[in-house]
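Priority: low. Protein: Alpha-hydroxy acid oxidase. Input follows.
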Amino acid sequence: MTTPLAPLSQIPAEIVTVADYISYAQARMTPQAWAYLTGGAADERLLHRNESAYQRYQIWPRVLRDLTAAHTRVSLLGKEYAYPIFLAPVAYQRLAHPEGELATALAAAAMQTPFVVSMQSSTDLAVLAAQAPGPQWLQWYWQPDQQASARLLTQAVQLGVEAIVLTVDAPVNGVRNREQRAQFCLPAGVEAVNLRGFAPQPALVSQAGQSPLFGTGFLQTAPTWAQVAEFIQDCPLPVFLKGILHPGDARQALEIGAAGIVVSNHGGRVLDTAPTPLQALPAVVQAVGASIPVLVDGGIRRGTDVFIALALGAKAVLIGRPYMYGLAAAGAAGVAHVLHILRTELEVTMALAGCHNLDAIQRDCLGDAY
Ligand SMILES: Cc1cc2nc3c(=O)[nH]c(=O)nc-3n(C[C@H](O)[C@H](O)[C@H](O)COP(=O)(O)O)c2cc1C
Ligand SMILES: CC(C)CC(=O)C(=O)O
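Result:
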């Protein structure tokens, strides 16, 4: 087996797109970690559809508009962000780079954009808060251990976390065949450090003849609407729900007091036959109206993709794998460069589509989907 290369100390001039990072990232990870990072569920159809969905739209060029005061600022929950491209929660980032989440947090701070830290972060939340000054949100999986949950939430508030992003689409991992084939497991030294002290989750039973999931106790850790409503009510921070696709679920999220929604299929890692976020987005936006912000993630690889998502009603987007490619290839500099590439592409797209700010990006900027 070939040993992964060391991270790049300088970014080569030939890396000019997100896709250019892929081969550099792969050469710097073990095949097992690569399977975890890039894989999707089952046959990975959705993983590919998430990206190809963006190719169904065209963007109308509009000419001769005044762009002298153009900007990409976006207001969310009473705060202004420089541009609408945020970093999605990705677990165990020390699989990609020895500095893991700390490198990502430093890049996010330098690039002035929120980093949603995964609850399964391989770096301590306190270390991130102490060493990286940028806005941090915390992704959350509802936990049956209420005492440990309350302790972590209190700590997050004290550390200045600005919002909670409660992931609701993965009560159980999808069937991840690529990970299984690669026999992925966490290497020594990479663990969910913020969950130390939490009661262990029941294990899935996989003996022939026994129900592998139902009745094992595993789903006792899966929350219901009532538990999420209670969580939102008790939480001192605004709570986004991540992993909503159906407009009925979006309405229910609004009813129970969610501060926002992330339309997502978990990057194609849960149910391979789910709709793409881009397909689901317009109906979700219609269901909740202007009352709460709707964000979207999954398959965004170009600034034009960001533009299309905004035109279909998203307030901002999140990226997952793109910044992990940057992280694996070149640490904090790679993450920052990926953000810079996408931000540049978005601004160029806006200029060519005649949009001087994000409010100008509307549905009629797009040609019909085919
Ligand atoms: C390796 C990996 C780990 C992830 N870990 C989490 C996680 O801990 N919590 C979560 O809510 N979503 C997680 N996600 C999903 C991402 O937050 C996001 O929804 C997805 O990556 C977006 O799709 P994209 O990778 O095409 O940008 C993970 C995704 C990847 C690729
Ligand atoms: C620890 C995992 C459940 C993190 C995750 O959400 C993922 O791998 O997609």
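The CA atoms of residues 172 and 219 lie 8 Å apart. The two ends are 44 Å apart (CA to CA).
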